[in-house]
Amino acid sequence: MAEFLLEIRCEEIPARMQKRAGSDLEKMVTDGLKKAGLSVNDVRSFFGPRRLTYVADIPARSPDVSDERKGPRVGSPEQALAGFMRGAGLSDISEAEIRTDPKKGEYYVAVVKSEGRDSADIIAELIPEIMGKFPWPKQMKSGSSSFRWVRPLSSIIALLDGDIVPFTVGGIESGNVTEGHRRMGKGPFTIDGFKSYAAALKKGCVVLDAEDRKAAILDGAVKACTAKGLELVEDAGLLEEVAGLAEYPIVILGDMDPSFLELPGEVIRLSMRTHQKYFAVRDPKTGKLAPNFVVVANQKAPDGGKAIAAGNRRV
Hints:
The protein is an alpha+beta fold.
């Protein structure tokens, strides 16, 4: 088996579209490979703010296929024989085999053999086709290309057993180079498989798995609140969204003017959740909202996040 690695990198994908896009890519690529006659094992897919990733083990080549097509009885009219030959791709009826059935007598059978194909050739046709019809809720064109994607494409990685599978989509040629975090570890990074890919992104300050990003945010938020004697107001929907906004999430606990708490708690929470993507914080002693919030940054700050907290406090 050979490892197939695909990364489609672009400008920031809206958080609400990422999870569905990851599922769509996994299904479309897996179904396409299987339809081409390839077995697909150990499928994994990942999604994030700037990339969709797919990895699986597939054979280096699809198997040869032999298909038998039953035809008319020997001695049938010429019209029936001609239709059978056209459908089976035969130039003469002598190319068909004659089989015998105890009840029906002798009849023709065409044995159609199809040679297997290199998996690289299958991939080179499949991925551009999938990307051309990918079901984004909204798409856009960029540059002079007529190709549409959710945001402008940056790069495509397509590797089979470490070798580049060459093709072009939207003016972007497939290769073996990716980039990390915009500020903390851009790269570029040349990779030869999923192991080096995962290592490069870790070095480049990108948390590849959305579940890992969610766990880091939740753990960091709970710890930040606990350290101040506060309690996080958990919000699964907001957690899902902010995990799609940061490649390297850093949790920061901020504070706000206590006078804002004169507003109903539901109003405060809705405003922070909808407009600022903040988590609300409560006082565990009273059960009421505290004049604090949790914000998730997409980078490490030299001052430990003080300036970020101050800026968000003003907001």
